[in-house]
Specification:
Low-confidence stretches: none
Strand content: 5-15%
Number of strands: 16
Shape: globular
Structural class: alpha/beta
Largest sheet: 8 strands, parallel, barrel
Helix content: 40-55%
C-alpha cells in the first residue's frame, strides 16, 4: 500500500495486521479523515495527516511575501536569473529575484520595467532584485538602491556583503511606519544571503545607531524611519548559503544552518523581536532528498540557483545548459572571481568541458608574482596573449579603457598610475567576458566558458535522468520547482511513517519528475 504515498494530500492510516509472525505495520490511505472500517486481525494504530507543499517551511513566509510556496528562485548574477525566470517563478507561486549583479545600471533599469509590465495583471506578485556588494564600484550600490526605491521594488536579495553598507540600511528603513495597533510595518524587505556568522550578525539585529544618525543627518531617512529602524532587524529573511555555485564558502548545510539559527535566537531581545527573522537554506538544494533535509533541519524556506540556470527561461545559452546537464558531482572547481580578483576571492564553476578555471588561476598567479606586465617573462606573456586573451595586452587594455571610462573612470586613472592594477583590469577582462561567452553561447570560446555551478548539479541530473527534465529543452523553472517541492513532501511523508514504526522499503524514496502545470 506504500504506493499510495504519492497521494500526499490524503490522510494515511497506520494499521497493524496480525500475522503468524506477530504484528506487522502497514499503511492504508483513505479519501477522508474518517478511520477505515477494520475487521479481523487488522487494527488502526494512528493517522498521518495530509501534507501539502504549501505547508513546508514557515507559513509566515508565504503570508508576508504573498507566495503559494516557501520556495525562492535565487538571483544568479549577470541576468542569468532573468526577467523570464522572475515572471515564470512569480506565476508559479514562488518568490524570485532578478540577477542584477554584474550588470550596468541601464540594463537593470530596463529589466525592472519589463518585469513590472509583464506582471501588471498580478498585483502584489512576489519578486525582487539583487543588490550585490561591489567593492570596486561603491557608487553603483547607492544608485541601484535609488532605482529600487523609485520604482517600487519592495524586495532585495543581498549577497557578497562582509559588513553593513549605508545603502542596505537606507533601503531597509525607508518607508517604516506603525499601524493603528502600534505594530511596525515594512515597505521594503531584505533577504540577506550569508555563509558566515559574523556576516549574519549584521542582518539579524538593528543597524548601529551611528549609521542611522549618519543617514538621518544626510536626509536619507526621516526621523520616524530612523527611530523605527532601531527597533527591528535589518533583514526579514536570512539565507544560509551552503556549498553553491559562484561565490561560496562551501559550508555544509547541516553545519551552517544550526549555527545561524542559534545566533538569531541569541541576538534577539528578551521576548523576541516584533517579527522574528526567518532563516532559509540555499546551496545544495537540488533534489527531493536535499529539499526535504533542508526543511527537516528547520528551514523556513529554500532557495535554488544552479538548477534554475538549466531552465529554458534562464539568461544563459543552450550550449551552457547542455554542458550543465552533463555534469556530475565532481565536475566543479574553484576559480578566481572577476569582481574581487585582486582580493583573491574565488567562485565555484563548472569544470567539465571548459578550461576556464585553470586559465583563470594562471592569470591570478601571474598577477600576484609580478608588479607590472612588463615584468612578466616574455614566454609567459606570449602564452597568455595566444591561448587566453587571444589578443595583445595593449589591444585588450584599449577595450578596458573604453569600458571603464563609461562605467567608472576612476579605475582608468588608477591603472595609469599603478601598472599592477592595469594588469588586473586586463586579466579581469578575460574573467568577465568568459561569463558573457557562456551566456551568449560563443562556440569558439567554449573552452573559456565560466559557468557558475555547485556540486548539487550532479544530484539534480541524477534525479532527473530518464524523465522529461533530463532534456534541457524541457526544463522550466516552474516544473523544476514544483517537482522539487512535491518530492520533498513525499520524502517528508515517508520519514514520518518511519518514525511511526512503519517498515518502509528503500524503493519508496524513488521519485521521478513528472510534467506539471502552474496550477498543481
Amino acid at each position: 500500500m506504500l504506493d499510495a504515498l504519492a497521494r500526499c494530500d490524503l490522510p494515511a492510516w497506520i494499521v497493524g495486521e496480525q500475522t503468524r509472525a506477530g504484528l506487522r505495520l502497514g499503511v492504508l490511505v483513505t479519501p477522508d479523515a474518517a478511520p477505515p472500517t477494520l475487521s479481523g486481525p487488522v487494527t488502526a494504530l494512528g493517522m498521518l495527516p495530509a501534507l501539502h507543499p504549501e505547508w513546508l517551511g514557515d507559513r509566515s513566509f508565504n503570508e508576508e511575501h504573498g507566495t503559494r510556496y516557501p520556495y525562492v528562485a535565487g538571483s544568479m548574477a549577470t541576468g542569468i536569473a532573468s526577467v523570464d525566470i522572475v515572471v515564470a517563478a512569480a506565476r508559479a507561486g514562488f518568490l524570485a529575484f532578478f540577477g542584477a549583479g554584474g550588470l550596468g545600471y541601464p540594463t537593470v533599469e530596463k529589466a525592472i520595467g519589463e518585469i513590472q509590465a509583464r506582471l501588471a495583471d498580478m498585483p502584489g506578485a512576489a519578486w525582487g532584485a539583487n543588490l550585490i556588494h561591489s567593492p570596486d564600484q561603491p557608487a553603483l550600490e547607492d544608485k541601484l538602491v535609488d532605482l529600487y526605491l523609485a520604482r517600487g521594488v519592495t524586495r532585495i536579495e543581498t549577497s557578497a556583503f562582509m559588513a553593513l553598507a549605508p545603502s542596505i540600511v537606507r533601503y531597509s528603513a525607508t518607508g517604516l511606519s506603525q499601524d493603528a495597533w502600534g505594530r511596525i510595518v515594512r515597505r521594503n524587505r531584505v533577504m540577506a544571503k550569508i555563509s558566515r556568522p559574523e556576516v549574519a550578525r549584521h542582518f539579524l539585529q538593528p543597524p548601529p545607531q551611528a549609521l542611522l544618525d549618519q543617514l538621518l543627518a544626510a536626509g536619507a531617512l526621516t526621523a520616524e524611519e530612523a527611530r523605527l529602524a532601531a527597533l527591528v532587524p535589518i533583514a526579514d529573511d536570512v539565507t544560509c548559503e551552503a556549498d553553491s555555485g559562484g561565490h561560496t564558502d562551501r559550508r555544509p548545510m547541516t553545519a551552517l544552518f544550526p549555527v545561524i539559527r542559534r545566533l538569531r535566537d541569541e541576538l534577539a531581545p528578551v521576548g523576541g523581536w516584533p517579527r522574528p527573522v526567518r532563516i532559509g537554506i540555499g546551496g545544495g538544494v537540488a533534489d527531493p532528498e536535499s529539499a526535504a533535509a533542508a526543511f527537516a533541519l528547520g528551514a523556513d524556506y529554500i532557495v535554488t540557483g544552479t538548477i534554475n540556470q538549466t531552465a529554458v527561461e534562464s539568461g544563459t545559452s543552450d550550449l551552457a545548459r547542455q554542458m550543465l546537464a552533463q555534469a556530475g558531482l565532481a565536475d566543479v572547481i574553484m576559480a578566481p572571481a572577476a569582481d574581487m580578483f585582486e582580493l583573491g576571492v574565488e567562485v565555484q564553476v563548472l569544470r567539465r568541458g571548459t578550461l576556464f578555471a585553470q586559465r583563470g588561476k594562471k592569470l591570478y598567479d601571474v598577477y600576484r608574482a609580478h608588479a607590472a606586465w612588463s615584468d612578466v617573462p616574455a614566454a609567459t606573456r606570449a602564452q597568455i596573449e595566444k591561448d587566453i586573451l587571444r589578443a595583445g595586452f595593449d589591444e585588450i587594455w584599449a577595450e578596458c579603457v573604453r569600458f571603464w571610462t563609461n562605467r567608472e573612470p576612476a579605475q582608468v586613472a588608477r591603472a595609469e598610475a599603478d601598472p599592477q592594477h592595469k594588469m588586473a583590469l586586463v586579466f579581469r577582462w578575460y574573467l568577465g567576458n568568459s561569463n558573457r561567452w557562456a551566456r551568449e553561447g560563443v562556440a569558439d570560446r567554449r573552452n573559456d566558458f565560466q559557468i557558475w555551478c555547485g556540486p548539487a548539479i550532479g544530484a539534480f541530473n541524477t534525479w532527473t535522468a530518464g524523465s522529461h527534465l533530463a532534456d534541457p529543452a524541457r526544463r522550466t523553472v516552474a516544473d523544476i520547482g514544483l517537482n522539487l517541492l512535491a518530492g520533498a513532501v513525499r520524502c517528508t511523508r515517508i520519514n514520518h511513517l518511519r518514525t511511526a514504526g512503519v517498515a518502509v522499503p528503500a524503493t519508496a524514496y524513488r521519485n521521478t519528475p513528472v510534467p506539471m502545470t502552474e496550477t498543481v
